[in-house]
Amino acid sequence: MKKSLMLISMAFLLCFTFSCQKGEKNATGTFTFNNKIAKINYVYAWYGPSVLDRSEKNIYLVFSDNPIPDKTHSIFDLQDLGEKGKIHGLMVRYSTMGTFKDSIEGGNFFHEDIGHSSLAYSAGFIEVELTNYDENVMEGRIFTKEPRDIFDHKYELDVSYKVSLPTK
Hints:
mainly beta
């Protein structure tokens, strides 16, 4: 299933903590930002509050080229790691409300060329193919059909993944 989505979020909506399960080396693909290619290997999953309705839960996925340290507990920790060049990747939020398979609620990039700028809070247009989803696992692909431009930065993405979902 494909859906072109504009993924935009704002910093003040992302001030929450999380506890993601161990990352799985079940992601394959690349994230290219400003012509710097990162091979995405890891995917992490957790449930957290929706930024639109805090009483609802979303599934958060973080895709990274390197393992994320266990002590990482906030969006700002992820941005710090990206700013220091320790991780390159992105986070997306899938809504568990309504037509779940068609919706992503927002996203973030992590890269040393971004740091904590407002660009870190906007993951642009991303295509979604969700091939398997149940209470235990999520599998699919996130990608751009062509190189994209956001605030004078170029990016491309093509990552397939399979991740175990934590218990709610």
